[in-house]
Specification:
single chain, alpha/beta, FAD/NAD(P)-binding domain, 25 strands, binds flavin-adenine dinucleotide
């Protein structure tokens, strides 16, 4: 009898963990495992700000999928549509070719993209922080602003190049602003013509408080640490318009700047919309056992799915965090294996362990198991947590060695230039326009590809 084919879409926290589990739970004769992924690594996103800041090399946070997954077939490309009735996933290979991939069981773990709003100039000029390429691009961009500011004789241009704006006061935005602010402060000493006092970092958020995930006290502590380092905050404020050399805020202020980093939340992968299933805040609605209601052979988890948070109860759904996605991946693996063997599936249950926010150097805030920490103890918890959560020994060692090297030798603030001249809109990195309409999917699948 042919082996059932399990197709997993997305090799991030949830997808890679699911396949790792499936390789252990099922014998090779029990199932054919296939992963659709645009990259051959699992990106450890929580340390992405360290890559932008040059504290870690890009390779340190790109965990090899082939090292971890020994018998899964890796199909290089992105899923651009699903036809659940025909049980076919349409994949655009990295060559651009479209192929129909039939499945018996489908696992959707395609994560999320940067959430955007209808703000003039956002699509054209905002820089994101969601992929490895974006982190590397951002680092080069920030260093090049210092390079250009150092050679201009126009004070207006110099001030605009030295002003950096980050939108989003959650952990991603706060860590990005904090890590890059350390980069520019440290780099300024290598530019004798620049006055470090002229470098400005602004953090803008429509919410009235920083880091609402960590509670009022730690949010205030993080703000105090960053204020001491010169970061300015505009809370309760949003962005009205973005132009290449200036940003207008909703309170009317116009800030001359060549850099707007947009980290104002995430939206579920556009793949979700191709299924015509129920969604909650854009995420695919799933049952506690991670199956999609009405589609017995489709499972979903991670940022793309709205999963009941049984530990909190009521209408709560699990937040889009790596902590949940990784654990949901384990439940996914167990439940897909149970489905194949006809065993009972289990509901996903995980009590949040809290968050860690690394602000660079000795600055950090964290709330492990409800205990509020700041400064060095919080930093120790943050670094220890990341080392434990990284999925392989090799990745842990790379990160540890890079941290140590950076602490001992510092940064040389080198611009790699690898991505010079490339289009750098959010869409150019996140491929949000790659997906097919329902009609296109049905037409392709109906025609047999
Ligand atoms: C800067 C930053 C910092 C963060 N810090 C933290 C933190 O400190 N703690 C925490 O818990 N969480 C943190 N998060 C959130 C966390 O990273 C996400 O919640 C987590 O990655 C979600 O896991 P996932 O498996 O759903 O998606 P991901 O890990 O993003 O994986 C999705 C995978 O699917 C692939 N993919 C996308 N589209 C397709 C497609 N169409 N076809 C095939 N493959 C596709 C992607 O390339 C990716 O490999 C942070 C996020 C960011 C951006």
């Amino acid at each position: 009898m042919a082996r059932p084919k399990i197709v997993v879409v997305g090799g991030g926290f949830a997808g890679a963990e699911c396949l790792h589990r499936l390789e252990r739970r099922l014998a090779p004769a029990e199932a054919d495992l296939c992963l659709v992924t645009p990259t051959d690594y699992q990106l450890y996103l929580p340390l992405l700000p360290h890559v932008a800041a040059g504290v870690l090399t890009p390779q340190s946070v790109a965990v090899s999928l082939r090292r971890r997954l020994r018998r899964t077939r890796i199909l290089p490309g992105g899923a651009v549509g699903v036809d659940p009735a025909a049980k076919v996933c349409v994949v655009r290979k990295t060559t651009g070719e479209l192929v129909n991939v039939p499945y018996d069981h489908l696992v959707l773990t395609a994560g999320s993209t940067t959430r955007t709003f209808d703000i003039p100039g956002l699509a054209e000029h905002a820089l994101g922080m969601k992929t490895l390429a974006q982190a590397a691009y951002l680092r080069d961009h920030v260093i090049s602003q210092l390079d250009l500011a150092a050679v201009t004789s126009d004070p207006v241009e110099r001030d605009a190049r030295l002003r950096f704006i980050v939108v989003g006061g959650g952990y991603a935005g706060t860590e990005t602003a904090a890590c890059l602010q350390r980069l520019t402060t440290a780099a300024a000493h290598r530019y004798p013509r620049l006055d470090p006092a002229n470098i400005e970092w602004h953090l803008v958020d429509v919410a009235p408080k920083l880091l609402p995930e960590l509670g009022e006290n730690l949010g205030a502590k993080a703000m105090a640490m960053l204020r001491k380092r010169g970061v300015e905050f505009s809370l309760g404020t949003s962005v009205k318009a973005i132009e290449p050399t200036q940003v207008t805020l909703t309170d009317g202020r116009v800030l001359p700047s060549h850099t707007l980093i947009w980290t104002a939340g995430v939206a579920a992968s556009p793949l979700v919309d191709t299924l015509s299933c129920d969604t909650l805040r854009g995420r695919l609605v799933v049952a506690p056992d991670l199956t999609v209601p009405g589609l017995a052979d489709v499972f979903a988890a991670g940022d793309a799915a709205a999963i009941p948070d049984l530990a909190k109860g009521g209408d709560a759904i699990t937040p889009p965090t790596a902590q949940h996605a990784q654990r949901q991946g384990k439940t996914l693996g167990d439940n897909v294996a149970a489905r194949i063997r006809g065993d009972v599936m289990r509901p996903y249950f995980h009590k949040d362990l809290g968050l860690v926010v690394d602000l660079g150097g000795k600055d950090a805030v964290s709330k492990p198991l409800g205990v509020e920490l700041h400064g060095i103890p919080a930093q120790a918890v943050a670094r220890g947590y990341h080392l434990m959560a990284l999925p392989t020994m090799t990745a842990r060692t790379r990160v540890m060695v890079n941290w140590a090297l950076n602490a001992a030798a510092g940064d040389d603030f080198v611009r790699t230039g690898f991505q010079t001249g490339r289009p750098a809109r959010l869409q150019d990195f996140e491929y949000t326009d790659a997906y097919l309409s329902r009609d296109r999917i049905e037409e392709r699948v109906g025609n047999g590809g």
